[in-house]
Write a structure and sequence with these properties.
The structure is a homodimer.
Chain A lengths: L3 H8 L3 H9 L6 H14 L5 H8 L4 E6 L7 H17 L3 E6 L3 H10 L5 E4 L9 H6 L4 E4 L10 E4 L1 H14 L4 E5 L3 H5 L3 H16 L3 E5 L5 H14 L5 E4 L5 H10 L9 E6 L1 H6 L5 E4 L2 H16 L7 E4 L3 E2 L11
Helix pairs in contact in A: 1-2, 1-3, 5-14, 8-10, 11-12
Chain A binds a DNA duplex (30 and 30 nucleotides) through helix 2 and helix 4.
Chain lengths: ~325, ~325
DNA sequence: GCGTGACGTCGAAGCGCTTCGACGGGCGAA
DNA sequence: TTCGCCCGTCGAAGCGCTTCGACGTCACGC
């Protein structure tokens, strides 16, 4: 293994000079820097991560805790993770993967052993049991999603309330008067994941504001459940012409179900969704949707963390504004 | 930060004794071990990962390179990753997440800086550009999938050839005489990912052995493409009664397409698939399938790596035998 | 009774890097 | 001309841990 002293000798300088040439933490003459860089290249020098971490008390590694529970949409998690890794690399950091399963112990372990400098936690619940730990940890963290009380924490997510509103407002603008929200599986509400409830809030508030008749329906992530909900909606709200879907796996099955029940999309029924663009585009009838900006959330989460590591203050809450893309699944209301 | 000297003082022993008590690398009296453990608990001691890595030249971290290209099925990758993390934890290791995108440089970086002790590489191609690097690296690695030449490497995967054979043999046993394979998207074959070709080999070989008429059809991962393939099959092989599907996203759309073309599954057409059990079970007609054992592959990959890190020899190739689960999509051939 | 090991513990020497204080030389200001 | 200061570099002191050799003790066998 080639070490910093080898580089120093080869470049005719001291090890500390090599270190400063690499880190830029002290001024180094152009000439010396050149010689050092050349020596590094010629010898193929790579600083030892452990030694670095020990001496500088910075590991340049971030922890990412991913969820693995029922009701989460895997591709979204994956995109998010990839975006975190990619962004972290831009800041010369790596990413350690933890599973939700490890829980508090896992977080404490990687933080206390100085394996990581900071943490990113996904799938935050309203009363997430990890909150006290994250508050007490000496290392900065960012949460994806919002707990009930975000005091002293840093959170980021799509503004799901606004997303729900945007969907309703779009439908209202098209003249629809009776709308329904088909939401996430019941367990998602039961465990009080904030984003699901926020959508409901936004949906309901906007419907009330616009004077629309509305209803909310949690739904299992199976085609059969989708069909049941479709039938129920038609039975209970025969005047229904607008639907908002916040449940990735059943988006397509639900549209199928409506069509099989004799409703054309968007002819008889307009559908909007809150889901990744990728999914919205791949449905048979491309769906007007509010995008789930996983890549952007991941990128910003890392940037927030970098700021905190740099000692800067960051806002406690970052809500990404929803952006709606109009596709083929919505149209002005026809008929009476 | 509480360090090993604090623990030593508190327990009335020397730091080296604490170290040995923790690692068990030298015999320690029961009494001393007890005192040390108590001191650790009372002080909340956590060994500093960097210091450990520096002194022992072991970071206890594994690198996992995940693919992000088109044509791969995200949930499978995710399950695999989770199983790697979980298994690694059982061996007191953590997992660093790298993306394919980082390429050779990324691998070399984490290996050369001693950030990781060993590497797991997914989505290996027949002539994977990373092979020379992995061979030359001083750190052990395991590949998920098989390159054309696995000399000097350690590879593990489902035995896809056998999987293809098992599917055909199952259909043959049910009396089917004309079969087709609907495979992965063309790009998967173009870039010569071994597993896709292996399935074709097994499928073809078994069909020939059993004297079945057979054909092979790569297929894009879209419902529209599935429908086109279904139509084409009916046109070109009107006597077709058995289909093997090796393409997760279109499994359900393909069955839908067949049924819309007037073929009942399994009445008129038997369908088997190579896919995760989870998917096979969630289709409207549960599909007889060979499981994609991502969790098992991940677990065994880590175990292989641990053996290599322990200095033990491991087989170059590990092929997991396919296991078929019979479900509702296959039935004996009826008619003439 | 003494040599021989095994056992349990200690002290010291690093592992490879960062960082702090110091120092010489050059330059501008007084 | 001299003082002070900044620039560029060096040396040394750790960072917190593991590991190696050494040493004292005890039990055992001859």
């Amino acid at each position: 293994m080639v070490k910093i002293t080898d580089v120093a000798r080869h470049a005719g300088v001291s090890p500390s000079t090599v270190s400063y040439a690499i880190s830029g933490k002290r001024p180094i003459s152009e000439e010396t820097r050149r010689r050092v860089e050349e020596a590094i290249r010629e010898l193929g020098y790579r600083p030892h991560a452990g030694a670095r971490a020990l001496a500088s008390s910075r590991s340049n590694v971030l922890a990412l805790v991913i969820p693995l529970r029922a009701g989460i949409h895997v591709p979204v998690v994956m995109r998010f993770a990839v975006s975190v890794v990619t962004t972290a690399r831009r800041y010369d950091h790596d990413v350690l993967l933890l599973t939700q399963e490890e829980g508090d112990d896992g977080l404490r372990r990687v933080a206390d052993t100085a394996l990581v400098d900071a943490l990113i936690v996904m799938d935050v619940q309203l009363h997430d049991p990890r909150l006290p730990l994250l508050r007490s940890l000496e290392r900065p963290s960012v949460m994806i999603g919002f707990p009930a009380d975000s005091e002293g924490l840093t959170c980021i997510d799509l503004d799901f309330k606004a997303a729900g509103e945007v969907c309703v407002e779009h439908l209202a603008r098209l003249g629809h008067r009776v709308v329904a929200l088909v939401g996430s599986p019941p367990e998602v509400y039961v465990r009080q994941t904030a984003f699901a409830q926020r959508v409901v809030q936004g949906f309901t508030a906007a419907a009330d504001r616009s004077g629309l008749a509305s209803s909310v329906h949690p739904c299992e992530a199976s085609p059969a459940a989708a069909r049941r909900v479709a039938e129920q909606l038609l039975r209970e709200q025969p005047a229904l012409t607008g639907v908002v879907v916040h449940n990735e796996p059943i988006l397509e099955p639900l549209i199928d179900a409506f069509e099989q029940l004799g409703l054309r999309v968007p002819g008889d029924l307009s559908v909007t969704a809150i889901c990744p663009d990728e999914l919205a585009e791949s449905v048979r009838v491309p769906v007007t949707s509010v995008a789930l900006p996983s890549a952007e959330v991941g990128e910003q989460a890392v940037q927030l963390l970098m700021k905190k590591l740099g000692g800067a203050a960051v806002p406690e809450a970052t809500l990404l504004p929803p952006t709606m893309t109009q596709r083929a699944s919505t149209a002005p209301r026809t008929g009476p």
